């Protein structure tokens, strides 16, 4: 098939979280399966790899004609097409920044331009065309694309065999606004019912995700557990009714990881400063060196027997950082070291700095984000803590297991799907889970984890090895995406 992924971010050029990683990796796995694959994303900066195609098109947004240029690169079997207009420039660090209306106008322009890419942009000298074509849109930012595909084209006999799949990475962000926002998306008035959603608190409002879910031919979300949660009033964030109505086209597929970037055997961030690459065969010695190098780099006491606990993520309520804060008095009574990396809410950033100041021999709070340090913490830590209140899929626990780092997670969404609890009797499982967002439950799970680390070294090594020997690659997920694309094509 001809497959076009459309997303507001794509690693390595732009990324705010897991979505950027997915869009940078899934297309390559689909290409390995023999499909012709393209990624369409905004051009936020001057990317060295991308060449100007010379194609120019004009689209009307809020009464103004905006010209877009198309830049293209071919990397690892995938065409990357970047849509260029001044509204996107210099936003790679603030992709979703600006006023509600500014963001909406950018997404209208982006989706209008993206849906016509297969007609206008020659890749390798040949346009994709609209035969045997499927779009994969991602989150609310591109949820207009299935609507435009239907309203502008299929309803008028154009692109009638083209299909759309909408992927839910995080339902909490929906593209909401007052009903009058509908008049900015430039659709015939009878389409307003697709967007109009009733909220018990605010009444009728405009909702882009609601429209995309109704218009898409298939809907995917990033884990089986999250697919179930989306159907509940708590997990669906007001869209559960629409999701239940469209349950027949919903499927959960767990994300994979890029085994080139996130592989302890080849990780470029482990090639200096005392770190070392390691594999399953050299796990014990290699991980010990990375742990010592991490302790030294962060100015913590270098001690191979002290368990290092890592946290990597946004500092906000979703990620459960406050639960870690509540557990600090207990943690500081243990012989452990805690390393936290992230940025987010100012009060939680202050909390990290305060913990480091109060417990300088045991805690390091790295406020900000560093790709290199994320890799080094993943390699050097013994335990990764993920107490997220909700987590559609989660990638850090997958990275951790690939590096022989044992996860302790709140059993929600993709965390529940991917972290099978340790069973000491059958010596199975890959980590620890706790079943409610409660610091006491976190302490219980982490306490059992630390006890196993100290007292049952053989069991601990089994946990590490089982984590590392799983197939966490994108190839398995790509096969399941292929099944969804075929279903959209032939079971319409």
Automatic annotation (TrEMBL):
Gene Ontology CC terms, in alphabetical order = amyloplast; chloroplast
Q: Which GO terms describe its molecular function?
A: alpha-1,4-glucan glucosyltransferase (ADP-glucose donor) activity; alpha-1,4-glucan glucosyltransferase (UDP-glucose donor) activity
Q: Does the keyword Ligase apply?
A: no
Q: Name one GO biological process term.
A: starch biosynthetic process
EC no. given is 2.4.1.21
Q: Does the keyword Chloroplast apply?
A: yes
Which Pfam families does its entry note? Answer: Glyco_trans_1_4, Glyco_transf_5
Q: Which residues form the Starch synthase catalytic domain?
A: 2-244
- Localization (cell): Plastid, Amyloplast; Plastid, Chloroplast
Sorted keywords for this record are:
Amyloplast, Chloroplast, Glycosyltransferase, Plastid, Starch biosynthesis, Transferase, Transit peptide
Domain of life of the native organism: Eukaryota
- Catalytic reaction equation(s): [(1->4)-alpha-D-glucosyl](n) + ADP-alpha-D-glucose = [(1->4)-alpha-D-glucosyl](n+1) + ADP + H(+)
**Annotated metabolic or biological route of this protein:** Glycan biosynthesis; starch biosynthesis
Family label: Belongs to the glycosyltransferase 1 family. Bacterial/plant glycogen synthase subfamily.
Provide the protein name.
starch synthase
